[in-house]
Amino acid sequence: MRRERLTYEADGLTLRSELFVADGAGRRPGVLVFPEAFGLGDHALGRAERLAGMGYVALACDLHGDGLLVDDLATAIELLQPMYADPAKTRARAAAGLAALCARPEVDPSRIAAIGFCFGGTMALELARSGAAIQAVVGFHSGLRTVAPAAAGAIAARILVCIGADDPFIPPEQRADFEAEMRAADADWQMHLYGGTVHSFTNRAAAKVGKPDAVRYDALADARSWAAMEALFGETLRG
């Protein structure tokens, strides 16, 4: 396994991302991995390394610039406000990561997916909404709301979102709005709901937030959502 820093510019920032490539020759599918709101930390890095072990070239993407990682939720949310207000900023950062990944000689640019966790899932969805030429997007406990809904026919990727049914940050009305958006866009989409599950269910360190009623790891939902991602990749990247 090889890991290297991959640096690129977007939205006035220097983004310091981490590329994971398993040993071997030949071009392989690539996967962008967008992190939770705190920035590029162990959770997203671990998932990128896991994907590389499965035969993908994985780019764990810097979110805030200069590799900034914060440990306070209020600070993280404050950093995200400009991107919530203007999805063009989110899309620019995501698109720069996509361009950097596609430029790698190890990557087959015709077989690219994007996944993300929490705001990172939102970021992956915004990349899809922009019409990016990628094959699949998976959002794990990702916010579904946008102020710039996809235009009809704009989404090229197949979409999968995996949501805790009791996630207080993604209530039923937000899920309904997303469904309406996907229908209007004529997208190929799926939504998986996990009963008794709240936010950050894929992150083993979720308990550090100290809000178990809202933010909590769930091993079964984690395993089921990852398996759903693998099934989608089987349809889109390995064919």
Provide a descriptive summary of the structure in words:
With 239 residues, the protein is α/β, with parallel strands linked by helices. It has helices spanning 42-53, 73-85, 87-102, 119-129, 172-185, 219-236, and strands at residues 2-10, 13-21, 28-34, 57-60, 107-117, 136-140, 158-164, 189-194. The chain has an 8-stranded mixed sheet with strand order 1-2-4-3-5-6-7-8, sandwiched between helices. Strand 1 and strand 2 form a beta hairpin. Helix 2 (73-85) crosses helix 3 (87-102) and helix 3 packs across helix 4. The longest helix has 18 residues, at 219-236. The mean pLDDT is 97.
- What profile does the largest beta sheet have? 8 strands, mixed
Beta-strand fraction estimate: 15-25%
User: Helix and strand string, N-terminal first?
Assistant: EEEHEHHEHEEHEH
Task: Describe the strand arrangement of the main beta sheet, using strand numbers.
Answer: 1-2-4-3-5-6-7-8
Tell how many strands the DSSP assignment holds.
Answer: 8
Return the average pLDDT rounded to an integer: 97
Rg, nearest Å: 16 Å
Low-confidence stretches: none
Percent of residues in helices: 25-40%
H/I helix tally: 6
Q: Based on CA inertia axes, which overall geometry fits?
A: globular
Span of the ends, CA to CA: 24 Å
Q: Helix- and strand-based class?
A: alpha/beta
What secondary-structure arrangement, pairings included, does this model have?
Layout: E1 2-10, E2 13-21, E3 28-34, H1 42-53, E4 57-60, H2 73-85, H3 87-102, E5 107-117, H4 119-129, E6 136-140, E7 158-164, H5 172-185, E8 189-194, H6 219-236
Parallel strand pairs: 3-4, 3-5, 5-6, 6-7, 7-8
Antiparallel strand pairs: 1-2, 2-4
